[in-house]
Amino acid sequence: MRPPARKRRTPERLGQLAACALKDPAESLATLLARVPYFVDFSAFARDRALADGESEQLARELALVQIATPVGVIVVSELTSKRLDENLLVALAAFHANSPDLPGLGMERLRLQLEPRLPAPAFAAHLRGLARAQAVALDGAWVRLPHHSVKLTSGDELTWARVWPLLAGDCRFRPPRVRDVAALLSGSEADVRRLMKLIARMGKVDEVAHDHFFLRETVAEMAAIMLDLANAAADGQFTAAEFRDRLYSGRKVAIQVLEFFDRHGVTLRRGDRRRMNKHRLDLFRTSTEADHSRSGREASPVGRPDFKSGRGREPVSGGFDSHSLPP
C-alpha cells in the first residue's frame, strides 16, 4: 500500500487497509467504495491487482461503477455515492442562490470543499462538466450555478452597459478607461457607473483588475494566454513585466497592475523581477468556451490507455498526494 503522509493509524485508514487485504477484487473494491473517502483511483486499483483489460471492464459493469476521467487517471464511485454527491451539490447551489441572488454563482473550489464526499479537484471538475452536459448545472468560467439562475440588469442598466461595453472592447481592450473616465465620456454619474461595473463584475462579465479599473472577462482570459505564451517561450519558464507590457502595447503602469492582479489570484508567481505561471490556477480566468469538454464525466475507461499498467505520465495533484496515493 502507498501510505499517506499523515493520519496513517486513523480508523478510516485501517479500514482501507482491511478492504485492500480482501482477495476478491470485486469485494475489495466494493468495500473501499463504501468507506471514507468513498472513491477509488480505478487505474491504480486495476494495476495493483494486475487485472487484465477485460477483467477491469467486467468489474466496472458488475459493480455499476460511475467513472470520472481525469488527466491523471480514472476515479470511480458507487452509484449511491454519485447520487448523494449530486443531491448535496444541487442543495448547496440552491442555498447559495437564495442567500446571494446578486452573485453569478459559487466558485468551483469553494463548492468542492463544501460537499461530501469530497472528490479530488480534477475529478470534481470533470464531474461538473458531466453535469453541465446533462444541463443539471451551468458553468461560467470558474463559477457554478443552477441553470435557471441569472443575475439580471434593469432596463436602464442594460442601456448604460450597451454604451460602456464598446469602451472596454476592441483596440482599447488592454487599456480601458477607468470609472471616472467612463462617466465623463457618457456624461453620467461616477457613482452610477461604479455601481453598474460592480454589478457586471458579479455577473462575471468584467474583472476589477485595479481600483475602478475594469477589464472584460474575455480580455483577462486573453492576457492570461499571453502570459502563458511568454512563459512557454522562455527556457526557464519565466517572463518579465517589460515583456508582458510589450505584448499588450500598453504602458508599464497598467501592465504592472494587471500582473499584480494575477499575482493576488495565484495565477502568476513572482520572484524578483520575473514571474512564472501557476497552470493549476488558469481555470480561474478561462472562458467557458475554452473548457475541455473532450472527456466524459462518467463513461471513460482506463482500459486500453498506453499508461494504464505502467503509470507513465502521472503527475502530482493538489493536496500533496500523487495519483498513486490513497487520500489520508
User: What kind of sheet is the major sheet?
Assistant: 3 strands, antiparallel
What is the fold named in CATH at topology level of the domain at 152-290?
A: Arc Repressor Mutant, subunit A
Along the chain, the helix and strand elements come as HHEHHEEHEHHEEHHHEEHEHHEE
Strand order of the largest sheet: 1-3-2
The count of β-strands is 11
Content-based structural category: alpha+beta
Write down the CATH class of the domain at 152-290: Mainly Alpha
Helix fraction by DSSP (H/I, runs of at least 4): 40-55%
CATH superfamily of the domain at 152-290: Winged helix-like DNA-binding domain superfamily/Winged helix DNA-binding domain
Spans of at least 5 consecutive residues whose pLDDT stays below 50 are: 288-328
Q: What is the correct CATH architecture of the domain at 152-290?
A: Orthogonal Bundle
Into which percentage range does the β-strand content fall? 5-15%
Mean pLDDT: 83
